[in-house]
Structure formats: C-alpha cells, structure tokens
Amino acid sequence: MTTEPGVTTGVTTPPTPAGGGPPVPPMMGDPGPSGLFGGFGGRFVPESLVPACAEVEVAFRSAWAEPAFHDEFRSILHHYGGRPTPVTECARLSQKLGVRVLLKREDLAHTGSHKINNVIGQALLARRMGKKRLIAETGAGQHGVATATAAALFGMECVVYMGEVDTERQELNVFRMELLGAEVRPVSSGSRTLKDAVNEALREWVASVGETHYCLGSVMGPHPYPWMVREFQRIIGDEAREQCRELLDGADPDVVVACAGGGSNAAGIFAGFADATRSALVAVEAAGGAAVSTGIPGVLHGMHSALIQDEAGQILEASSISAGLDYPGIGPEHAHLAELGRARYVAAGDEEVLDAFQLLARTEGIIPALESAHAIAWVVAAAGGAEIPSGSTVLVNLSGRGDKDVAQVRDILRGRA
Questions:
Q1: What is the CATH number of the domain that holds 190?
Q2: Looking at 110, 114, 223, 334, which residue is catalytic?
Q3: CA distances (Å), 392 to each of 15, 95, 240, 253, 383, in order?
C-alpha cells in the first residue's frame, strides 16, 4: 500500500459517553491518512497516481474544514438539486406488508438519484484545484448523467466511460449525457460493465491528471474516495434522521435499508444513523454480486475490500438485472461495517426485484430504479418475520427513479408473457 507522507489529518472531536470516560471514536468517521476502515480501504495504486490521490485528499480536507465550502455545497444542492428530499409514508404498501414503510426520496433529487450530491461536491473540489475537465465511470448511467450535469453547470469538459453492455440497456441515459454535452466512451474490454469502465477511467486519469479530476461515483477506489464520497452523501442520512424524528414523535426507525453495489447511497444514509441511533442497518446487494456474503478480501481499483474472486484471486464477473449493482465488490467501509456487525448485508435476486419494482408502482404510484427495487424486495420478503417484526417502522432509501429502467423491464415482462 502506498500513501503520501506529510498529509495533514483533519481533526474530529469524537463523542463522549454519557457516563463520562474517554471519547468514543465515531463508527463512520475520518479514516486518517491511511484511508483504512479497520483492515479495509487504503490506497493501492501505481506510483504515478499517488500524487493525484494525495492532491485530492489535501484539497478535500482543506475544503471540508471550511464553513464557506459547506455553505456553497448545501446552497447548490438546495437551489439547484432540490434538497432536502422528503420522506414519504407508504400507506398502501405498509398495510399490505404489516410494517410501516417510509421512503427517503432521493429519486426526487435533480437528475433522478442521489448521485447529484457527490458530484456537486466533487465538481466544487475540482474547481478549487484548478481542474477544467471531469472524467467519470458509470454503470446504470445515473452517475454519468449527474457528472455531465455538473460539468455543464460549472462549464467543464466531461468524458464518461461506460461498459458496452450498459450502454445498450441504458440507452436513454447515454443520450441524456450526450445532450448535456458529455462524451460517452463505450468500454469493450472484460465483461463490458461497470468494473471495466472504472479500469478505463483510472487509466485516463494517469495520462491527464494535470487538467483532469476523476469524479468517482461511489464509496470505492483508493483513499480518499470512499471517505470523501461518503461525506458528500452523508447529507441523505442527516436529513432522514431528523425527518424521521419529526414524523415519529422523536423516535428513530427500527430498520434502515438501502441497496448496495459500490454502496454510496447506503453509506450516505447509514452515516446519519450508525452513531446517532440504534436503528438496524441493512444493505441489499444483487444476488449475482453479493461481495459481502460470498466474496473474500482482495484488492481491486485501488482498495482492499470484499470482492468476488476465485481461488487464484482472479476477479469474477458479477451479474444483475440492475446495471448499477453489477459490480464484483463493495466499498471498504461497508466491508468494515459488516465485520463489526453494525450493518447486515443481504441479497435479492432478479425475480424478486422485478416483483418489487411492480409492487411499489402499483401500491404507491412510485416507479423505483431497479437498484432501489432491491431494497424494496428485501423488505417485502422480511416483513412480518424475525428480521422485520409486524408493526416495525422501516426507512428505505429510494436512491433513484425508474425512468431509465422502464424499457428494459417492459422487454423482460413481455418476454415472460
């Protein structure tokens, strides 16, 4: 693992236990210059990328310590991004399942998902570093659309790498990116999905780092990205915690659920509850990409985390009906939360997800992204059992809207018929 010496560490004041004694470090806090969450994370990159990662870390630590940066970040997300997003009560779905279901509506944020939160933060950081160009990877296309949106807003050039398989099943988002002025570069290597798009984006960053910022879309990759992206997405959890307490007369939800591929929307909502509440945290992976439950520790894309690999350490291809969860690993902080037992990681299969996609549409008039439908699918399966007893309150992070998936689901359902 290579890390840049001499990086100044931000100071975090940990909470003090009610009964006195030494401060307790926050569970989802600053990993320090090593970028390690327990034994996961770090910075496993070629020497040529160490200065680039260090530049991002120094810039982020400096910016995140300034109230003015926070004010501008939140102001843009409010006036341009549509924050705060609401928490919606699902009366008909709740009646059907016997548990109280609440949705944190990231599908209502500008561009249709939580991705805009991270991208606005990174675009502000890129401008601060004097970068004129953004590059990004994308699977389902939502991160690519958000990056292209921010580039248009800030007057930057934008290139998005996307696996050929994903460009076909997310054709609408490809057009949206191009309409926003971005160049979409299809990736034909490997499995031609998200993993390979990340590979190409990292290669490009090595060659153009002087003028380019790599706007990585999830809580993965080399330090500081897993930590930085989580902090930009923390706004979801902070909002949701306060909204739920207002809605639930000061109480917290019994269970907080989110889908997880790389895991940024899950990390964002978990950050609002992991330290401040006793709510159970559940992340739902795709059954064909369940890195926490079926993977083993390894190194990929600059991080040490739980990965799907064979006995020889070769990364295996993930599979999912959802392009956004089609990734053979998970962010390192998620691997750490699973190891600590603070969060549970479960899986949902494609058929369950399709059923949940339709169920939410028909009971609540809300069409979720296929990624988010994984979280709904687990709630449907678990409601009324030991994991979610009848009468419990469940908060689901609805990370995105399903417009991008409607054509794909239509074709699948027609094929069934």
A1: 3.40.50.1100
A2: 114
A3: 29, 12, 17, 8, 9
- 299 part of a folded domain: yes
Residue 158 appears among annotated catalytic residues = no
Q: Is residue 96 part of a domain?
A: yes
What DSSP letter does each residue of 179-204 carry, written as one string?
HTTPEEEEE-STTSSHHHHHHHHHHH
pTM for this structure? 0.93
Between the CA of residue 382 and those of 285, 348, 394, what are the distances in Å?
15, 11, 11
Is 265 within a domain?
yes
* pLDDT for residue 282 is more than 60: yes
- Judge whether 90 counts as a catalytic residue: yes
Alpha carbon distance 10, 105 (integer Å): 32
Within a domain: 11 = no
Question: How does pLDDT run across 316-345, given as a tens digit for each residue?
Answer: 999 999 988 989 999 999 999 999 999 999
Marked catalytic residue, from 90, 158, 215, 259: 90
Q: How many helices (H) and strands (E) does the chain have?
A: 15, 14
Q: What is the pLDDT of residues 383-395, one digit of tens each?
A: 999 999 999 999 9
Q: How far apart are CA 361 and CA 381, in angstroms?
A: 17
Strands 183-187 and 157-163, sheet pairing: parallel
d(CA 240, CA 314): 39
